[in-house]
Write a structure and sequence with these properties.
Layout lengths: L2 H24 L6 H8 L3 H7 L3 H6 L7 H8 L7 H13 L6 H12 L2 H26 L5 H24 L5 H16 L1
Length: about 190
């Protein structure tokens, strides 16, 4: 990363940290982009050069899964086991999304304590669930029961939520490691 990229990265991180702090202190609806710009010591225009709006500053851009990874999933890979392959997609979607485990934990706290932000997260999850559900049906066939699709997606969401809760208790371990440990615990419980 060159110096310009590093500065841009640091500015984006500062904006995200200030937005989370403002949300925890005032609630999501209790601050404006102008408040964020002042807290981060940048112009309003700078905020919009980095993010499309308040939700994106806090939550980051919507998860993006590589087309090749999605195509591999739909064609039955990469492991050939449906839930394991969903986990691979989950890792792809969350890879390199935050710079600090403490930041992820702070975002979770902000989400859990603000009903408006929680609704926004729920809307994002619904869109992602619809996309994943379509991919599961393309992979497994149209006759794959909707109940099983919903069960798989809820199980995946439980993995995310539990990993975030663990992260809140232990920010010295990465989110990915907490996620993987959660999956190991689920497998042990179901064995």
């Amino acid at each position: 990363m060159n110096r310009r990229e590093a500065k841009r990265h640091q500015t984006a991180l500062r904006l995200q940290e200030c937005a989370v702090r403002l949300t925890i202190d005032r609630g999501f609806d209790g601050w404006t982009i102008d408040d964020l710009a002042a807290a981060a010591d940048v112009s309003r225009r700078t905020v919009f050069n980095y993010f499309d709006g308040k939700a994106e500053v806090i939550l980051g851009p919507e998860p993006d899964v590589d087309e090749e990874a999605m195509a591999a999933f739909v064609s039955g890979g990469p492991t050939g086991r449906l839930f394991d392959d969903l986990l691979v997609l989950a890792h792809e979607a969350t890879r390199e999304k935050a710079d600090s485990e403490r930041h992820i934990a702070a975002v979770r706290d902000a989400i859990m304590n603000d009903p408006h932000l929680l609704r926004l997260v729920h809307e994002r999850f619904e869109m992602a669930a619809a996309l994943l559900g379509d991919c599961i049906r393309r992979r497994e066939g149209d006759d794959f029961p909707d109940e099983k699709v919903r069960l798989l997606l809820r199980l995946l969401m439980t993995c995310f939520d539990h990993a975030l809760a663990r992260l809140g208790e232990d920010a010295s371990t990465t989110f990915t490691d907490h996620f993987d440990a959660t999956v190991v615990d689920i497998r042990a419980c179901l064995a």
